[in-house]
Amino acid sequence: MVWIPEGSFLMGSDHHYPEEAPAHRVAVGGFWIDRTPVTNAQFQKFVKATGYVTLAERPADPADYPGALPELLAPASIVFVPPPGPIGTGDPYRWWQYLPGACWRHPEGPGSSIRMREHHPVVHVAHGDAAAYAAWAGKQLPGEAEWERAARGGLEAGEFAWGDELHPRGRPMANTFQGDFPHHNSLLDGWERTSPVGAFPANGYGLLDMIGNVWEWTDDWYGGHAATGDKPKGCCRQASIDPGSQHGNQPRKVVKGGSFLCAPSYCRRYRPAARMAQGIDTSTCHMGFRCIVRG
């Protein structure tokens, strides 16, 4: 783990997506944070020690999804499946599939495995799965402000965790999507999906993969970014629910950092200030986490 000293920083951004605004100064206490996202090997150790079964490996409770077709209640998770050709970016359901059998052990569904991917970030973990691992390890999930302070690596005004250019001197600094999203990834960074932790340079605090590779869970309920003291308004469970969103009546947590699917033409969330809402009942092939220990 890496020590992040207490201090204040300018959180959020006024120059990108509306949910990041307004930029506002936030103070956080010192804390330790995992140098990398939790890997498949680390998560496997947890599962072997505890017998834990992730949300994606359990059938859904019909009471939670009244009227759902029985086949949609089978153990499953959400997987990115690139279309064969250009389709535009207006309908994400054209490249996301809810695949029975997809889980952390089988990241692309039945027939896939984590063999030779032991040092890649674990994926297909819902918020409760991440929290269970953290508790077992004697750690916690980070708050949004803690995560963002760590991701900035001491560069308060930097657009990215490494400066103001996405690819300084043409060099990819994180695992993101290059090419024509969603159908053609040029693989400029060398990776189509997740990459081993540490495949890209560390930030100023020595942290790896804070940007790209996988989105990371925080423990904060999603709400507006307008500040009241050090907390955003609407910071509580009930206020995080938006029935008009793709998550329906499920409470949502903040996720940070972007993933291997963030592209300049579609999702420019490969920045410390970026944030997204994720339903706590949802796991995907590009969602992971890391833990902290507060000082």
- Report the average pLDDT across residues: 94
Structural class, please?
Answer: alpha+beta
Strand content: 15-25%
Q: Largest beta sheet, briefly?
A: 4 strands, mixed
- Low-pLDDT sequence parts: none
Taken from the alpha-carbon principal axes, the silhouette is globular
What this model shows, in words?
This protein is α+β, with helices and mostly antiparallel strands. It is built from three helices and 15 strands. The chain has helices at 40-50, 127-136, 144-152; strands spanning 2-4, 7-11, 24-28, 31-33, 76-80, 96-100, 179-180, 184-185, 215-221, 227-228, 231-232, 252-256, 276-279, 287-288, 292-294. The strands form six sheets. It has a four-stranded mixed sheet. The mean pLDDT is 94.
Layout of helices and strands:
Blueprint: E1 2-4, E2 7-11, E3 24-28, E4 31-33, H1 40-50, E5 76-80, E6 96-100, H2 127-136, H3 144-152, E7 179-180, E8 184-185, E9 215-221, E10 227-228, E11 231-232, E12 252-256, E13 276-279, E14 287-288, E15 292-294
